[in-house]
Amino acid sequence: MSNQLEKVKELIELRAQARLGGGEKAIEKQHAKGKYTARERIAQLLDEGSFEEMDMFVEHRCTNFGQEKKHFLGDGVVTGYGTIEGRLVYVFAQDFTVFGGSLSETMAQKICKVMDMAMKMGAPCIGINDSGGARIQEGINALAGYAEIFQRNIMASGVIPQISGIFGPCAGGAVYSPALTDFTLMTEGTSYMFLTGPKVVKTVTGEDVSQEDLGGASVHANKSGVTHFTAANGEEGLSIIRKLLSYIPQNNLEEAPIVNCTDPIDRLEDSLNDIIPDSPNKPYDMYEVIGAIVDNGEFLEVQKDYAKNIIIGFARFNGQSVGVVANQPKFLAGVLDSNASRKAARFVRFCDAFNIPLVTLVDVPGFLPGTGQEYNGVILHGAKLLYAYGEATVPKVTVTLRKSYGGSHIVMSCKQLRGDMNYAWPTAEIAVMGGAGAVEVLYAKEAKEAADPVAFVAEKEAEYTKLFANPYNAAKYGYIDDVIEPRNTRFRIIRALQQLQTKKLTNPAKKHGNIPL
Ligand code: HXC
């Protein structure tokens, strides 16, 4: 064998060794937990055969606690680039088979390298987390590595899309990288995220809580809102990430890909002419409206189990990607509260950062009153959504279906927050408040003194409703651009979005604003 052939053979052997990560036993252990390895995950995520691995021969440099005797090629993370639907993406996947995927100085350097390249190339960066946290043997160097990653997460925010898949443990300060990225996905039963684990919780507070109840996928999907998506398993999770990327541009200077639209743009949806119940207190399902108007009824919902009174997600109109924000009358009557406001605000800001037009469907009775909300800072949280809409310069199309009262009317992308096209259905009620509340404020004294208080209140309510519970009062002032037939909503939105394609609007130059946090 020639010298060169010897060297090629050695390379092939080293590559094979690197691909084994922590070794066959550790891989078996990973599989036994119902989890895939880092390389298997990358293969499922990317277009077949597109992955180009980098830094396969990187090894840690730690000599503490006998680490100098334990080395694995690649050092616990697989990094590189590839394509999803033919579009460039950068990826890193922590390899739990090597020191439990724990983060070393060199692992951090590998991750930072792909993040830097993603920024340079203007391509999304996807991180797959499965790690025991900071590599304990490396001490401060591991912490410094995390900080380097966080700093890059922050600099990349609003420049390239960043997506985190949590496919195993993600604990301690490590959770802050996913939290800084745009979207987080967790797998059910196999992933968890918490700042402090159950043992520390027990010691400090005395609370007994399982790993799953403290930071499992369903907790973060339902209660905290930390995760945007959950998946039954790794394969489903990776396919959700692929789908999500189809709605998103490569970076903040590009537009989302246009998809060939097979759904007629002028499709009339007769059911919408009769979807609003006669009683203002009766709900209907906003999902039916969304499904009826978007291309082929396809909607990728974000944070679907959190603050269900507001719906957010991606859809397309005539092949163009949009962010949909919609009140859900079926849940808490579609009221805005702290969680709903925070949820929608972050989504609006994501869409604005990445040139994705916003379509807002309004049916909101107001903000949820009470000490619970006030003590929780609903003023600040509501202001976040207000700020987000007011700051957004992407095309904004708003359709008011029914209620749009008071502050919540303003917050939900009204004309004065630079809404581009504001439509209303004939059933819209755009007013300071609902009839019952208004009469109570205006006529409390008179009602008490009236011969027949019930009839008096009913009469005043009818008067108020006639005057204000309609869209024409707002349309009279140009606050509503047109009152549209509900069945024609899809077509009118598409027309508006077509018109707005050349929209140019910039905010005043500033270092950054000071959004209420
Ligand atoms: C070094 C680690 C490690 C770590 C796991 N391993 N975590 N090595 N540093 N942080 C190693 C284990 O020693 C073991 O090595 C292998 O990975 C697999 O771990 P197991 O414990 O056998 O796996 P499992 O039973 O599945 O338990 C997983 C685990 C547990 C729950 C994650 O390993 C664990 O509790 N690890 C420590 C978690 C932790 O406290 N991390 C520090 C958090 S503080 P062998 O050789 O036996 O295969 C932190 C600060 C970040 O991260 C701050 C950022 C700002």
UniProtKB/TrEMBL annotation:
Transmembrane segments: none annotated. Residues 4-260 form the CoA carboxyltransferase N-terminal domain. Residues 264-507 form the CoA carboxyltransferase C-terminal domain. Pfam families: Carboxyl_trans. One of its GO terms (molecular function) is propionyl-CoA carboxylase activity. It comes from the Bacteria. One of its GO terms (biological process) is carbon fixation. One of its GO terms (cellular component) is acetyl-CoA carboxylase complex. PANTHER family: PROPIONYL-COA CARBOXYLASE BETA CHAIN, PROPIONYL-COA CARBOXYLASE BETA CHAIN, MITOCHONDRIAL. Belongs to the AccD/PCCB family. This is Propionyl-CoA carboxylase beta chain. It comes from Bacteroides graminisolvens DSM 19988 = JCM 15093. The lineage of its organism: Bacteria, Pseudomonadati, Bacteroidota, Bacteroidia, Bacteroidales.
